[in-house]
Design a protein that fits this description.
Length: 137
């Protein structure tokens, strides 16, 4: 499924250095962990609603089916987030593996307003692994 994402909160990187005393002087070293361990392992996506709220109901049904007690699947399908340049070519692809959907925001239905506006909803996911691929060199 390809979706138009209105906004995305990409996980931040924070790496705490390892501190050590060497000849009475404090010295900082980079840690010996993989990059993935420094990430929050959560991603928050904001989607623009389409006609009939079809993308909301697709995610709603996915959420409901995934957490059904008869569902034996441990994770959702992998998600690839593509970053495009101004000409439409993909220059970075971020793959998220072993994904869990953790929340889906409410769907606000208010027809008392006449103003034309883009309506959005949020979906939050947790993942175990991330892979960043550079497409253009």
């Amino acid at each position: 499924m390809t979706a138009s994402i209105q906004a995305c909160t990409f996980p931040a990187l924070t790496a705490e250095p390892v501190e050590q005393v060497l000849y009475e002087d404090p010295i900082s070293w980079k840690g010996g962990k993989r990059l993935e361990t420094y990430l929050s392992r959560e991603i928050n996506l904001t989607f623009k609603l389409y006609e009939g709220y079809i993308n909301y109901w697709i995610l709603y049904d996915t959420f409901r089916a995934f957490y059904d007690l008869d569902n034996k699947e441990e994770y959702l399908s992998d998600i690839t987030l593509s970053f495009l340049d101004q000409t439409g070519f993909e220059f970075i692809a971020v793959e998220f593996h072993q994904i869990l959907i953790t929340s889906l925001s409410e769907l606000e239905l208010n027809y008392s307003s006449n103003t034309a506006e883009f309506k959005t909803f949020n979906a939050n996911f947790k993942y175990n692994y991330i892979k960043v691929k550079k497409r253009l060199d």
